[in-house]
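Good morning C.,

I know you're traveling, so I'll keep this short. The sequence:
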Amino acid sequence: MFLKPPPGVGAAHLSPPLSRHAAVLLAIALLAPFAFYFGTVASIVSVWNSSETFAHGYVILPISLWLIWRRRVNFRLYPPSPYPPALLLLAVLGAGWLAARLGEVQVVAQYTFVAMFPAAALALLGRRLAGSLAFPLLFLLFAVPFGEVFVGPLIQFTADFTVWAVRATGIPVLRSGTRFELPTGNWSVVEACSGVRYLISSITLGSLYAYLTYRSTMKRALFVGLSVIVPIVANGLRAYMIVMIGHLSGMELATGVDHIIYGWLFFGLVMFLMFWIGSYWREDGAEPAPASAACADVHVTAPAGGTMPPRFAATVAAVLALCAVWPAAAWVGERANHNPAPVDLAPIAQALALPPAPEFTDWKPAYLAPRARLHRVYRMGSLPVGLTVLYYRNQDKETSLISSLNRLADYDDAWHEVEGAGRTEALAGHPLALRETVLRAQGQGPLLVWSFKWIGGHYTSSDYVGKLRQAASKALLRGDDGAAVMLAVPYDDPEQARATLRRFLQDHGAAIDGALDAQRAR
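The tokens, ready to paste straight into the viewer:
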């Protein structure tokens, strides 16, 4: 096959091609991780299948391969030369994947897995060749289904923007969290209105467009920055216009599936305008040839069988070993940490010497299914207190204490969060960091909820700290037991509600703590 060299580089200056054996070894080294990390690959594909937000993941690898094919002449311009220091980066990524597996942080496991391919390419091909293919290799990271963490902040921004814009139009708005009322009807900003789909699509397309259209790093960075800002603002405008169409039409238009269609048409128009405007600064000229290649004055004749870089086979073996050792360690750790004992939360109820009280709310936390659940209502003075304990053991993606899917109130639930903040109380004589949340539902009184997590004998309100503690506990082969503890009370009088929950923790926190520790020891 004839490869046309860049301007200024003669065909005689191209290096010999890789031998067939070297090409086979390279293919094995880059394909083997799919087998070693099959579970992680399956988790990525399952998200692609289940969420339209990440369905674009299927085209990322073909696009990356196409981008590499466009620059295939680089394999002759930059002779492959193994770069052993990159093996250290590969080892760090493998250790990160193992830590993510121990902590059940799926997105980190997925990112570290995908990042192994650029690291392996750097180790096998060398800095010059891998560096010339940096964007196609790093573009693979867009295959990771990441972005759920932005849903909450995007919902909040969209609600803030929409309410501000409607009020600026002169229409009165009564707001409660992410829900608001106009004289003509009620509206709610839910997950589908967050704009996360638009944002992820825009960043992916914007990065690819910037790479193909510009040569200047500054222009590429500016366009990618616009790809982040424009869809966020555009989604706020989209939500505002949908509300206005519904309001002006007496809630006849833009209230059903037509508002979804309208949203995608609006997003498509915004993206078209952004790319169209960006095309005025396009740089079509070819990238300059490397000085080392342009100035070469030695003609190299390729042997019939091609060449194999020195130490290439050894580097391939090292890459395969570094990719294989971490799944093996995870396999051993999972079996060592598995606890077949059933979970029994009855001792917690028995430890609380309080008479039961009738239910006062239909609120339930929207958490993944635990191994065991305890819910009791007790009377503390003049107020009832609802205690909910969700206990997790042998955690996986279907039953996990810390997950982006776990919320006190789901986005489309009758209950919704109005406000929330962290605070510090005391439990069993020790400081306890917890989260205080106010929940509301139409036709029901508000609730004050104190929530915190118990992981391996430690308490925290931070998901990040919780994941680190879970990973550390499993690394020490102590299992992954954890629990979510929630206390709910009517919120008619804020000071009385807080005083009631504080008294409950003071009087019965030690009993709950002891019962959880006893459960972990089983």
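Safe travels,
E.
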